[in-house]
Write a structure and sequence with these properties.
Strand order of the largest sheet: 1-2
Distance between the termini: 46 Å
Shape: globular
Strand content: under 5%
Largest sheet: 2 strands, antiparallel
Helix content: 55-70%
Number of domains: 3
Number of strands: 4
Length: about 325
Amino acid sequence: MEGVAESLHKENEAVEKLSTEANLSYWNASISGKKEDYEIYEKKSIALQKHFNNKESFEKVRNFLGVAEKPLEKRQLEILYNAYLSCQGDIMLLEKITKKSTEIEHLFNTFRANLDGKELTENEIKEILKEETDVIKRERVWNAGKKQGEMVEKDLIELARLRNILAKSLGFKNYFEMSLETSEQKEDEIEKIFLELEKSTERSFKEAKGEIDEALAKSFGVDKSELKPWHYHDPFFQESPEIYQISLDGIYSRDILGISRLFYSELGFDINEILKNSDLYEKPGKNQHAYCINIERKGDVRVLENIKNNDGYHPP
């Protein structure tokens, strides 16, 4: 009879191959924006889900989890159990969910705002909101950048419906609860953390926001109560507006990658291989946000960015 160690070895080999292929296909799709690359990513994702949909393998993992004694083996089995659990249920429904999710990602990631027939990247929108003094143009630019929501609205609602059907079929209240449980998180714990965070930062945030609003209201010649989202410098208010006479752009205008290399080198890290494998600048069709990915969990770490030689921070 196959033991825990032998079973885990086979499982790890199979999952490594499938997940590496899925990660690579996602990376390629993120960079190119091509529909055919997103379709490859969809197929690779479904192949991985089919592996975890296997009922017999799931039962084997469940049984081994009940008897495993070695901490490392037990931990592997816990991770595998959650991966299998999230992919149980109707495989046709899983495929439909993956197809819908990939379609939304393709639309969302390749979206470019259009203003008077000219495409604008997210970096360009931020630059306009940072410098433009014409409030009417600011509003038009801000609204143009939000049109992607209209593009995916119906599909996103349908995706939520399908995910909830799957989650309920597996005994969860909804997909939100299932995704938390299978990633080893608890809804009440997360709520507690954020309530504590809100309580501890509320006063400081209101003071800082009040100072920002006062400066912006004065700058645009309006009352603070009249400020709108397009008066701010970031479409999502993830970066504070530049209301002080201080700019760090000059520090980074030389070579932001050179500065990064030096920074990490002085910490004892060589990031040249990571940078070589990464994709760091804007391209047509490319995902405009940012993320870091470990392709095969053996050192092939890559970063997707859309950097400029300034101090702008673009969260993933």
